[in-house]
Amino acid sequence: MATFMVIAFAASTVDIACDGHAVESLHQRHHGWANSAQVGGAYLGAAIGSGLFLLLVAQVEWAWAMISMAVLLSLLGLPFLLSPSSKPEAARLQRPSVTNALRRVEMRKGLVLAAFYAASQKWGLFMLGPFLIDAGVDLGSLGTINGAGGMIVGFGCAIAGGACVRAWGSRGIMILALILQTVALSGLGLAAWTGNTTQSLLIPLALASSSGIMAIGFVGLYARFMELSDPRQGGVDFTLFQCTDALVSMIGGVGSGWIAQHFGYGACFGAAAAFTALTLPVVVLLGQRPPSLSEENGISHSSGAVARQL
């Protein structure tokens, strides 16, 4: 358990550092592609962690598989070790803190947006696996949805989401994802109510909702997180958003199971579709692009660069 805690602490620390590095380093016009890398990288990382690792265990046993994964992680970390820091620590004028984050109105609005959006995208999908099993989908097909198929669809849609964010902005992509997710969840709910649970219908709906639509939507949401994060404490601000996402997800996992147990899968997916539709006005209202934080603080990226040179 102590080893697992060390691993969890290391993984979360690296995640925070990567988020902070992206917020501090990238101009707003690059946020779409940055979050394509984040979301698409998550799908690739899951494939490496749950797929490649199991293949290594089968071939060379546990100890050597762990050593191989440690070497791979070290190689993946080389770009950060070899690249110069975008903001030397000496140039930091503000000490990052949670208190500073929560003082900002835009940050508090962003936390509300994160809660609603995460609930709308995730709550209906917690019971997707059990529903597919009970509907007669075989384990091989379910493995395709959760494994290679989900990775390919999710990675492709994450790249597409980055291009769309670049073209239309994060709010438009979040709204599009909410509309598509409402349709997909409604389809799953209707299939559960009517008993029309053929694999030719369920598998495309499951792949679309759990991988494709979610990937597009979260590219838009993470781009919004980057816009709302203060570059002077990007790691803290972005982490607060993601912790809100995680907390809402845990609550939704319990609630979805309770609804499905007492009222059935149709009620579970139907309620999730209704909540997703109700989230649309929240995203329209809170998803407006905030004023640039650099303008808010009277500091631009260019003037900051000049100041560092001086």
Automatic annotation (TrEMBL):
Which InterPro entries does its entry note?
AmpG_permease/AT-1, MFS, MFS_trans_sf
Lineage of producing organism: Bacteria, Pseudomonadati, Pseudomonadota, Alphaproteobacteria, Hyphomicrobiales
UniProt xrefs under Pfam families: MFS_1
Q: Look up and give the membrane topology term.
A: Multi-pass membrane protein
- Fetch the SUPFAM superfamilies from UniProt: MFS general substrate transporter
Q: Where in the cell is it found?
A: Membrane
Record keywords, A-Z: Membrane, Transmembrane, Transmembrane helix, Transport
Can you name one GO molecular function term for this protein? transmembrane transporter activity
- Organism annotation: Microvirga lupini
The identity of this protein, by name, is: MFS transporter (Putative signal transducer)
Q: Which family does it belong to?
A: Belongs to the major facilitator superfamily.
- Its main localization is membrane
* Top-rank taxon, per record: Bacteria
Q: Gene3D superfamilies per the record?
A: MFS general substrate transporter like domains
